[in-house]
Structures are given as structure tokens and as C-alpha cells.
Specification:
The complex is a heterodimer of chains A (about 180) and B (about 280). Chain A has about 180 residues and is an all-alpha fold. Chain A has helices spanning about 10-35, 40-55, 65-80, 110-120, 120-130, 135-145, 150-165, 175-180. Classes of the chains: A mainly alpha (about 180), B alpha+beta (about 280).
Chain lengths: ~180, ~280
């Protein structure tokens, strides 16, 4: 029984579903930016929500839920051993879920993503959490279980490396100067 | 720093695949929570049994040399709890175990046979069964087996169906009907063997031989098919059973038989096939 008393399962699940509908897409986007693979992003999001579901009754400050969810997602990403065979194909007739064949990833934006994905995992995570997920240095340090100094140094190195990667290849018609930090 | 945000936004501007609906996500989370509860209960039971054993042992050891009557209970009735089959792994664990299964299957090939991943570019595909009363999965690892005489496939399929292991005859019709969607309807022989202390159901279905190990909440099926047929994941023969191989690959009668039923049963009982 938590501090606020045990809520019934229906209430918990209603809150859970509402949170997924509200924040699921953003978390999946974050996962995609981290890993660069929609299949894996979907799996990481599911892992995150599965862990949230198990912890839901123990979370009595739901204003921090988003931060907690991003932390769980980050841990799932860092723990993930990426394998080419790790795919899931739903059997629902007519389903187009995870049908990435229809999504063209060629061109400038995939070049940008390729540059981002080339960064080391933790460095990439620092940049995305700080500048995409708008997390503070302290929040990122907490999520990554490291010091704030490490977050700052990883940020600086990540920005430098990303700038070099983007400038080292033609990105398309847009000026790379406008896109590099 | 807004540049990074803009960069991310540009990456995400491309249309994304549709998201899982909330009911689907909730169903998977519920299933995982139930499975975790079961595992916790099992582990708790084992810990309790171990605690009893640890606290009882010194008492027994510290007593004076007992009479034969006093010794009798500890010798004749070891009070170990009745432990059922292992719990079927969660979907993620089953999928993540695919490469080790593929390695084990490849290692099992006799000399003169070669193996390679059995789905175009990979060995394992995991399907999530949507619309089941309970979330379930099929995680199939498949090896293409070949020698100078022909080609076939060896696979190991982990299935999570949330059903208990059958208590009675493993060749009973009810068991066969449970397996039918995974290995086809039984049309041949069926026998039960005990390998490495594990009961394995070995059945022939057409040309194929299936060795099945039952788990708590699922099963493991090792299947040898002496014919090779491509499983087109994007356009399966039966959309409701995408893991099934086409029945007639249009090849000559099988000429390969590298495995006996006993060898397949031994593979099914191999603890390395479970995460």
C-alpha cells in the first residue's frame, strides 16, 4: 500500500493508458533518435511502459513521471544489445504496424541521422536528452548515473564530434552552417 | 543549442510507422507483470524451502547419534517442494536468446552438414500474437541445413501462450490440438521420451519431426523438416500463422535425415535453448 493508499486496478490502468496516449509518441521519438531504428524504438518504448506499469502504484508524484519514463527509456537503450534479427512482426491481418518499408529514409535527413548515430551511445544520449528532451544537466546526470561534470564534458565532445561528422560529408542543399552547433 | 533540437526535429519530420495502440501496450504490460508475479512466487517458494532446509539441518546434525527410527524421515522423505517445468521466458528474453539458440542448433549439425540463418538475413523472428485472450508470442529460430544431397531446416520455437504444462499424457488429443497451430495437426506417430530428466513429446507430422518440451506458460518446439522452403515473412502463406512453412516447396522427396528422434528430443531438453 503506497502513501496515497492503493488505487484500484481500473484507475491505475486508466492513468497508464492516458499517460501513454499523452507521452508515448514523444518517448518513441526520443527512442528513435537514440537508436535510429523504428523497430527497436518501438521495443524500447514498450519496455519503458512495461516497467512503468509495474511501478505505477509506487509512483505517487506523477509530476515527475515524464522524467522517470525518460530515465527508464535511457537505461533500456544503454542496456540494449542491438542485433539485426531482433524484429517483431505482428500477425494482425492487414496490420501495417512497423512497416518501415513505406518510409523513405534516404536523403539529407537520414544523413543527419547517420551522423548522430555515429556518435558513441552515451555521448549521443547526452545530446538528445539535453537538447531534444530538454533535460537539465543534473537530470541527465541522474538518468545516466554519472556526475554533472561528465555530462558537461560529454556534451562538449559530442557537439564537436557531431559538427565534424556533419561537415565531413555533403548534407544536401541546406547550409550545414545553419545546422551545426 | 537549438540547432540540435532542430536537427532532431528534421530527422523526425519524416512520417513514422503507426504506433501501437494503448490497449496493445497495456496488454503486454499486464502480461509481463503477471509473469513476474509468478516468477517471484516460484523463487519465494524455493527460498522458503532452502531456508527450512538450512535451519533444519543443524538441528539434525547436532542431535545425538540417532536411532535408525530417528534417521528414517530425513532419508526416506526429502521434503523438497514439487517444482514444475521452467517458466516460459518473456517475449523480449525469448527474442534476445535467438542467437544462442541459432549457435546451439548449428553446433548440433552432424559432420558434412552446413548451416546458415533460415530467414533471409537473420535466424530469429519473433511474432507477437495480437488479439489473443492473453498476449502471446512465437519466437522462431531457424537454420537452413544443407549437404551435397539436399537441404532442409532445423528450428527451435519458443512459444508463450500462458497455458500450464499438460499434466497427463503428452500424446493426448488435447495436447495435439494445442500444438496444431505451431507444428500442424498430428498425422503420424507420437511418443514421449525422458531425456536429461525432462519429458519430451516427439511426433511426426508429415515429413517433419517435432520434439516438444512443455514449460509453465509456454513450450519449446524443436522441428526438423527435411525439405527447405522459404518462409516469406512479408507475404506468408497463412497471414494468421506466419511462422508456418509452406507444405509443398515443390522439391523432390527428402533425402536428408541427419537427426534421429532421440537426438531431437535431446536438443529440446537442452537447457541452453532456454534463456
Amino acid at each position: 500500500v503506497g502513501r496515497l493508499g492503493r488505487r484500484d486496478t481500473r484507475t491505475v490502468e486508466r492513468e497508464f493508458v492516458a499517460f501513454y496516449q499523452d507521452r508515448g509518441a514523444h518517448l518513441r521519438n526520443t527512442a528513435y533518435l537514440l537508436c535510429g531504428d523504428w523497430h527497436l524504438a518501438e521495443d524500447l518504448t514498450q519496455i519503458t511502459f512495461t516497467k512503468l506499469y509495474r511501478s505505477w502504484e509506487r509512483i505517487d508524484r506523477h509530476d515527475t513521471l515524464d522524467q522517470f519514463a525518460r530515465k527508464v527509456l535511457l537505461r533500456a537503450f544503454l542496456d540494449e544489445r542491438r542485433r539485426a534479427w531482433r524484429r517483431e512482426y505482428p500477425t494482425e491481418p492487414g496490420s501495417t504496424e512497423l512497416d518501415t518499408a513505406t518510409h523513405d529514409t534516404s536523403g539529407t535527413d537520414s544523413d543527419l541521422h547517420a551522423a548522430l548515430v555515429q556518435l558513441p551511445k552515451r555521448r549521443r544520449a547526452v545530446l538528445i536528452l539535453r537538447f531534444w528532451a530538454d533535460m537539465s544537466v543534473e537530470q541527465v546526470a541522474d538518468a545516466m548515473q554519472c556526475s554533472t561534470g561528465t555530462v558537461k564534458s560529454q556534451t562538449a565532445r559530442g557537439l564537436t564530434q557531431l559538427r565534424e561528422l556533419i561537415n565531413s560529408k555533403p548534407i544536401g542543399t541546406d547550409s550545414t552552417e545553419q545546422r551545426t552547433p | 543549442m537549438n540547432d540540435i533540437h532542430d536537427l532532431c526535429q528534421r530527422i523526425l519530420d519524416k512520417p513514422a510507422p503507426p504506433m501501437r495502440d494503448s490497449a496493445h501496450v497495456l496488454a503486454i504490460a499486464r502480461h509481463a507483470a503477471r509473469r513476474r508475479t509468478r516468477i517471484t512466487a516460484t523463487v519465494g517458494g524455493l527460498v522458503a524451502a532452502a531456508t527450512i532446509a538450512i535451519t533444519t539441518a543443524p538441528t539434525l546434525l547436532s542431535t545425538r547419534p540417532p536411532t535408525p527410527q530417528a534417521i528414517a524421515p530425513s532419508v526416506s522423505t526429502p521434503q523438497t517442494p514439487s517444482i514444475g517445468p521452467p517458466v516460459a521466458p518473456a517475449r523480449e528474453a525469448a527474442a534476445a536468446h535467438g542467437d544462442r539458440i541459432a549457435q546451439r542448433l548449428t553446433d548440433a549439425l552432424p559432420a558434412g552438414y552446413s548451416g546458415r540463418p533460415g530467414f533471409d538475413d537473420r535466424a530469429t523472428i519473433t511474432w507477437l500474437l495480437i488479439g489473443q485472450p492473453s498476449p502471446a508470442y512465437v519466437s522462431r529460430t531457424r537454420i537452413h541445413v544443407a549437404n551435397h544431397a539436399g537441404q532442409g531446416s532445423l528450428s527451435a520455437t519458443l512459444i508463450g501462450d500462458d497455458l500450464p504444462a499438460p499434466a497427463g499424457d503428452l500424446c493426448a488429443p488435447a495436447v495435439a490440438s494445442r500444438l496444431a497451430v505451431y507444428v500442424g495437426a498430428d498425422a503420424g506417430t507420437c511418443q514421449v521420451t525422458t531425456t536429461l530428466g525432462v519429458q519430451i513429446r516427439v511426433a511426426t507430422v508429415g515429413h517433419t519431426t517435432a520434439a516438444t518440451r512443455f514449460l509453465t506458460g509456454g513450450l519449446l518446439v524443436v522441428l526438423w523438416n527435411p525439405q527447405w522452403s522459404k518462409v516469406d515473412d512479408s507475404a506468408p502463406v497463412d497471414p494468421n500463422l506466419p511462422w508456418r512453412e509452406p507444405d509443398d516447396p515443390g522439391q523432390p522427396p527428402p533425402t536428408l535425415n541427419p537427426f534421429t528422434a532421440a537426438q531431437l528430443a535431446e536438443l529440446a531438453a537442452d537447457p541452453w535453448l532456454l534463456p
